[in-house]
Amino acid sequence: MADPARRNHSSASPFEPVYxxxxxxxVGNRIDVAGxxxxxxxxxxxxxxxxAQAARCLTIIREALEALGGSPADVVRTRMYITDPAxxxxxxxxxxxxxxxxxxxxxxxxxxxxxxxxxxxEIEAEAILSDSSC
Length: 134
Description:
Blueprint lengths: L5 E4 L5 H5 L4 E4 L2 E7 L13 H18 L7 E8 L5 H12 L5 E6 L10 E8 L6
Parallel strand pairs: 4-5
Antiparallel strand pairs: 1-2, 2-3, 3-6, 4-6
């Protein structure tokens, strides 16, 4: 039986129903947003450099947070996965554009690859809301 305190949010990712996960899950005052890759609403990959792709990932995160009653201001931790260390500044600046004043704890990792070869970045987030009544 489903937990009534648990709310799942799905996005346009074609992987969610096949791999059995949600874009984000809220339990009480906590929202966890799964790794967001640069996927457009039609399922294609976001074109452009790592900064443009990171901006798309962050848009998906914002949409997921808002769908579950949160906002970027509630984010306490992010993780950024990049495939090329040369992209760190572009991804970091996109992250800073959303979280510059919020300044969550954050980690950036260089990994060998993501699921699609054109993806340069994937970002996940954790949020804690000050009001758990939603």
